[in-house]
Amino acid sequence: MNYTFDYGWLLVYWPVLVKGIGITVELTLVGGVLGVMLGIACAWARALGPSWLRPFVAGYVELIRNTPFLIQLFFIFFGLPALGLRMGELEAANFAMVINLGAYGCEIIRAGIQATPSGQFEAGASLGMSRIQTFRHVVLIPALQRIWPALSSQIVIVMLGSAAVSQIAAEDLTFAANFIQSRTFRAFEAYFVATLIYLALAIGLRQALRGLGWTLFPRRTAR
């Protein structure tokens, strides 16, 4: 093996990497927050919402969970303009990540809702709460507490899946690695560095979500 490793390009292309990391983090924050909110809304609709709404939400969930994320991204970015709905690269990437996490989050959160004892719903009704008020004030937090590890893992998976947005020229970390290797012809080094950065981001995000869980659900850490 005569290959000579060379990471000298890091001194020149570090701004490209930093920009890519920033966009990946931005996509993760927007997709994570809005995706979880969408997942909560859809979980309520499927578990407790009006009967006429449930088939529509179920159709959305099945459509997203049974199609590739890349196809969803291409449909949003390349397909929707045919209907006059045009989005920039980052807008399309954010939208795709939100609807993807929303569908997976819906089923995860719904599992937590369905594990809620029926007595909690009865307790809310006895206090004069509506079904929505009971959901918000009595059911939601315990349900999230039950499924937080699974939901956290899904958010990390969505963050790693964001690498696909480079295919529509969104300048994320993978786009940065592709750009660098096309200029330096150092594919091994460029993708190796990107791999290490993704690993660090995934571990950091998992730890941040674990800390957030300790903050939101203090009873959980006391056990």
Automatic annotation (TrEMBL):
Segments crossing the lipid bilayer: 20-48, 69-88, 147-169, 190-209
Residue ranges of domain ABC transmembrane type-1 in the record: 21-209
Coiled-coil features, chain-numbered ranges: none
Signal peptide: none
CDD domains per UniProt: TM_PBP2
Keywords, in A-Z order: Cell membrane, Membrane, Transmembrane, Transmembrane helix, Transport
InterPro entries: AA_ABC_transptr_permease_3TM, ArtM/GltK/GlnP/TcyL/YhdX-like, MetI-like, MetI-like_sf
Listed Pfam families: BPD_transp_1
Topological type in the membrane: Multi-pass membrane protein
Primary localization: membrane
Protein's cellular compartments: Cell inner membrane; Cell membrane
Family affiliation: Belongs to the binding-protein-dependent transport system permease family. HisMQ subfamily.
Protein name, as recorded: Polar amino acid transport system permease protein
